């Protein structure tokens, strides 16, 4: 039985475990009964499920068991570039190569336990792959909504797991809301970027870091941010450990965005509570394709996380990202995707600004492996295609509903 | 201080920790003082270094800390394809995307502790990447010997870590022996595929599997085999645990080769002690580019491992490999490289032959991630080029030796 859902902003509480957003407009997350938790309560399992007492589902299934338990290592070679004492939490070392697997590991079993319908998501990248892989491991149908102009390379990465891929012509950003509506109307559960169960899964990255440092704590964490889901999960994790009395001095959260599309940075700099969605004219191309959501559904919560922990949000350019990506490899031995390299680029900026000191212990969280970007692939991929307007009907047809 | 080196075949013992091969011709491995080891002696570290008491070096450095601790999961979706009860040990979830990191994690620090010279290897694939990454994390120069006709894609994968890449025109297979000679003559340590320290690192995969199953044990392990190094490491691990009284019923070792180049399979079928090197006419192209060494330097030891554990060696075709790769993804949610998929294809064959039963618990070891094969990359890479004959002089020049 799922715990209740709670709003971080207005405090409203919901018993319906299928809700995603509060009536006030903010995203919801699962309550945790963390007060009595101690490190000794962790299960003996190696991955993220060692923290099962703090997660909203029991005993997952399939690929979920492989998520989490990523390496956390001191990476002195990167100290120079970062201007501090660097540790790396290599989230790319996951079954589908990204931290998204922590979210899918909780959300896909959570959805499949609740009903027999399909699962799905709205993504052309890591979240699409992750959701499809977890669904595949459970023999459950998966529907992925992608932009009509998705590249063949992206299609190949997603298609390997066998989901139904639906190309949607129209405003791709609006599909977040569409997906929630479709989940209510049809036998499918779209697991959006800040689905509460995903957020619960993301907490486990924070637990692993803090357990490794205990009884100390890192001074800061640095991660790339797009929709605000991972930052929300790390903050939820911090609050759980504070409730348990296991984290007296939480790490500062530093979020890094791509200068090409950085609504959260702008809101932080302006002292705003919520990001203002960026218009197409206000966004540009970036090599950090995994980040840059112009209208981040958990943007307000990510800002709250930053302010609560005394952190900051910064933007970095593609040049800084490329340089950081090379430093990750040449000085650290890590192959990380461009968005992930932004973490290092961001910390370098913060060091220049004097917000990060030489002797600060900072954990960089490269969110995805760079291997997906290297090598060559020219496979043809079969897809479904539809317009946004016809999506409900097409989906109903695909799902065998009249 | 390193333990002594021992020959698996003639029993000869050497104190010189830089030797690689026995006077009898067989590869050496480090002795282990395992008799008193219990699972309680494992360190609290998360990765392979939890087994430090059984490894030939103390406290590694750099990227080495990130190796090991890969997920081991029950993967029921693959039972059908395999014809048994499948567990997957996902060795692709490593810093450089392959099990090679276990070997480099031991061998690179071992070499750097012994002297100030460069490290290197002979490889155009996963071992090249791994060695380069580990060296990069220690700020140590790395030299990689590659075939003159190496593809741009392979170059990109290796070059990202910043090693010196040397294209060698001539008999690439002969570079194994050349590398050992060069290591003796120049300030460089080439860490070949069955370097004893690499073999020690590979043991840890077996330790992790057996500790997870303890007090039971899997019925069998299945892995792709090329040079015979990984199989040697798993066998060394089995023997350590037997000596410690922790493994009464060791798993059978099933090695899988590509039908295009399968000297070990042929030797197994013929009841031969050693593989006969294959001529170019006897080998063909394969999608499983990570395997297919026509003259495996640890082939004899791999055969001994198979016979000692009651296992077998089988070959699979490219069609079987492709089908298995798709099953890994669509039924298991795993993206594995073609050579890795051979593990599943091999077990399917063995099930058909009746050597593997429905209720056998078999651990598949996909050795490398499939992400390196997907996506696109068109970078240009700067390289050094030389003939084999001129290699010693060129290398001396590159290393600043007169």
UniProtKB/TrEMBL annotation, chains A, B:
The lineage of its organism: Archaea, Methanobacteriati, Methanobacteriota, Stenosarchaea group, Halobacteria. It comes from Halorubrum yunnanense. Residues 67-367 form the Tryptophan synthase beta chain-like PALP domain. The keyword Lyase applies. PANTHER family: L-THREONINE DEHYDRATASE CATABOLIC TDCB, THREONINE DEHYDRATASE, MITOCHONDRIAL-RELATED. This is Pyridoxal-phosphate dependent enzyme. Its cofactor is pyridoxal 5'-phosphate. The keyword Signal does not apply. InterPro entries: Ser/Thr_Dehydratase, TrpB-like_PALP, TrpB-like_PALP_sf.
């Amino acid at each position: 039985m799922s715990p209740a859902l709670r709003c971080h902003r207005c405090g409203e509480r919901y018993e319906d475990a299928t809700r995603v957003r509060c009536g006030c407009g903010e995203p919801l997350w699962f309550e945790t009964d963390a007060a009595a938790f101690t490190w000794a309560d962790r299960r003996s399992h190696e991955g993220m499920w060692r923290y099962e007492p703090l997660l909203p589902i029991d005993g997952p299934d399939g690929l979920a068991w492989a998520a989490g338990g990523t390496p956390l290592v001191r990476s002195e070679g990167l100290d120079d570039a970062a201007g501090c004492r660097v540790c790396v939490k290599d989230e790319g070392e996951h079954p589908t190569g990204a931290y998204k697997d922590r979210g899918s590991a909780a959300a896909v079993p959570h959805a499949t336990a609740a009903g027999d319908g399909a699962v799905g998501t709205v993504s052309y990248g890591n979240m699409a792959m992750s959701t499809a892989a977890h669904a595949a491991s459970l023999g459950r149908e998966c529907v992925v909504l992608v932009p009509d102009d998705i590249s063949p390379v992206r299609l190949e990465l997603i298609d390997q797991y066998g989901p139904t891929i639906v190309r949607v012509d129209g405003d791709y950003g609006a599909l977040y809301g569409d997906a929630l509506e479709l989940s209510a109307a049809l036998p499918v559960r779209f697991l959006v970027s800040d689905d509460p169960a995903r957020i619960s899964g993301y907490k486990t990255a924070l637990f692993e870091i803090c357990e490794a440092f205990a009884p100390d704590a890192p001074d800061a964490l640095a991660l790339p941010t797009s929709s605000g889901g991972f930052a929300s999960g790390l903050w939820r994790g911090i609050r759980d450990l504070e409730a348990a009395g296991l984290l007296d001095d939480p790490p500062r959260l530093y979020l890094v965005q791509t200068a090409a599309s950085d609504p959260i940075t702008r809101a932080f700099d302006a002292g705003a509570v919520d990001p203002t969605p960026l218009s197409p004219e206000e966004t540009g191309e970036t090599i950090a394709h995994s980040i840059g959501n112009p209208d981040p559904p958990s943007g307000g919560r990510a800002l709250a996380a930053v302010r609560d922990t005394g952190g900051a949000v910064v933007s970095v350019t593609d040049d800084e990202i490329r340089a950081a990506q090379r430093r990750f490899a040449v000085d650290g031995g890590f192959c990380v995707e461009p968005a992930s390299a932004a973490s290092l680029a961001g910390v370098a900026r913060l060091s220049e600004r004097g917000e990060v000191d030489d002797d600060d212990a900072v954990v960089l969280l490269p969110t995805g492996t760079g291997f997906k970007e290297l090598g060559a692939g020219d496979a043809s991929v079969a897809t479904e295609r539809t317009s946004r307007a016809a999506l409900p009907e097409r989906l109903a047809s695909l799902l065998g509903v009249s």
